[in-house]
Design brief:
Layout (H helix, E strand, L loop, with lengths): L3 H16 L2 E2 H8 L3 H10 L4 E4 L2 E4 H5 L5 H6 L3 H11 L8 E4 L6 H6 L6 E5 L2 H7 L5 E5 L3 E3 L4 E3 L1 H7 L6 E4 L3 E3 L3 E4 L5 H10 L2 E5 L11 E4 L6 E4 L2 E3 L1 H8 L1
Parallel strand pairs: 4-5, 4-9, 5-6, 9-12, 12-14
Antiparallel strand pairs: 1-3, 2-3, 7-8, 10-11, 11-13, 14-15
Helix pairs in contact: 2-3
């Protein structure tokens, strides 16, 4: 009969095989043990697990020197991301259908949606979907397609076709770079078709970023800033002049 520790190791390995990354607190809750116990399990099994920025990742990702992008970004500017999402959540109304973009910023938006709001949430990333499953009044629409581990997201024709059948009230879009003149950009080209399709369909579009993204330009352009009703940072809704000042 397997020991409790062996059972935990197998369960953790299976969870990482499916999701590729787990926050320490989520792993502890999943296994029903303390965070310290999970830390010890990870430390005792360096051939299976690695610890990166508060997240558990497969050891192979560390050893190959290509650590999981989402884990690297998850703890970066976490407080600012959460504050930006608190401002953004004011645009959510009961019974809305909302779109939540991929990445590590907008997962905080899920946390601040009022528990009593009955909403339909459209997403295409595993980290956002995982948080949505904890919202008792949220109906989740997960867009399909090819899975991209770099952002734990899906993209492809099937997801784009699903969007054609949805009425989206509010879209919350993320970006890795926001330039006042050149617009919103991201790192991964596979995200562009989803972002652009949503922007074209939603009644209201908001770009939600922390200030560290202002003035940066990434390789994949997806929209001019005029496509959004507002750019929302940890300071609230930012005017174009404010963005130019931050970029300067």
């Amino acid at each position: 009969m397997a020991s409790r520790k062996t059972t935990r190791i197998i369960a953790l390995a299976n969870a990482l095989s499916a999701r590729r990354v787990l926050h320490l607190r989520d792993a502890a809750a999943f296994l029903g043990v303390s965070e310290m116990t999970v830390r010890r399990d990870v430390a005792d099994n360096p051939d299976l697990f690695g610890y990166l920025g508060g997240h558990i990742v497969p050891a192979a990702d560390i050893e190959a020197d290509v650590p999981y992008d989402l884990a690297l970004a998850a703890d970066s500017h976490a407080t600012a991301k959460r504050e930006a999402c608190i401002h953004a959540a004011r645009h959510i109304r009961p019974d809305d259908t909302i779109f939540i973009d991929c990445g590590t910023t907008l997962e905080y938006l899920v946390d601040v949606i009022p528990e009593n709001y009955s909403i339909t949430a459209v997403c295409y990333s595993l980290n956002v979907a995982d948080r949505l499953t904890r919202k008792p009044n949220a109906r989740i629409v997960m867009l399909g397609g090819v899975y991209y581990p770099s952002s734990a997201s899906f993209s492809g024709n099937s997801g784009l076709e699903t969007l054609d059948h949805l009425g989206i009230n509010v879209a919350f879009v993320s970006a890795a770079g926001v330039d006042p003149a050149r617009g919103a950009t991201c790192v991964h080209f596979h995200e562009v078709p989803v972002k652009q399709k949503v922007i074209s369909l939603a009644r209201e579009n908001y770009l939600v970023v922390d200030r560290s993204k202002i003035g940066k330009l990434k390789p994949a352009f997806f929209a001019p800033l005029t496509a959004f009703r507002a750019v929302i940072t940890e300071d609230g809704e930012a005017s174009l002049s404010a963005l130019e000042a931050l970029a300067g």
